[in-house]
Amino acid sequence: LPPYQVYLLAEKALPGDGGKTAQSIIHARSHTAEEIGDGLAKAGISFVSLEDGLYPSRLRDIPDPPYGIYYKGYLPADSLPVTAVIGTRNADAYGKDQA
C-alpha cells in the first residue's frame, strides 16, 4: 500500500503486530499538521515538496523522485556539487552487509 493509505487504515488493520510502526502511525495521527510543522521548525528541519520551486531540479529529474525531502540548513544551488547522506540509525544485518 502507498504510505498515505497505510496512514488511513483502521488501527486494527495496521501492518505488523502492533509494534513500533503501528505505534508511530497512531502517534502521528494525534498531532495536527501545524503541530508537526512547528516541531520540525523548532528542530531546524525544513521540508520541500516536488511541487515547490525550491525542490532541487537535479533530484526532480531522476526517475521516480521522492515527493518531498526534509533537510537541515539550506538547499544548495544546482550548479554546486552535492553529497547526500541517506540511511538508517538502526541497520539490520542485511543493511550492514550491503554497506
Topology record:
Layout: H1 3-8, H2 20-29, H3 33-42, E1 45-49, H4 57-60, E2 68-72, H5 93-98
Antiparallel strand pairs: 1-2
SSE arrangement, N to C: HHHEHEH
- What is the averaged pLDDT score? 82
Overall geometry: globular
The largest pleated sheet is described as:
2 strands, antiparallel
Helix/sheet category: alpha+beta
The amount of helix comes to 25-40%
Report the sheet-strand fraction.
Answer: 5-15%
Evaluate the radius of gyration: 17 Å
Overall strand count: 2
Straight-line N-to-C gap: 27 Å
Q: Strands across the major sheet, in which order?
A: 1-2
Q: Give the low-pLDDT segments.
A: none
Number of contiguous helices? 5
How would you characterize this protein structure?
The protein is an alpha+beta fold. It has a domain at 44-98. The protein has helices at residues 3-8, 20-29, 33-42, 57-60, 93-98; strands spanning 45-49, 68-72. It has a two-stranded antiparallel ribbon. The model has no long low-confidence stretch (mean pLDDT 82).
Summarize the structure.
The chain has helices at 3-8, 20-29, 33-42, 57-60, 93-98; strands at residues 45-49, 68-72. With 99 residues, it is of the alpha+beta class.
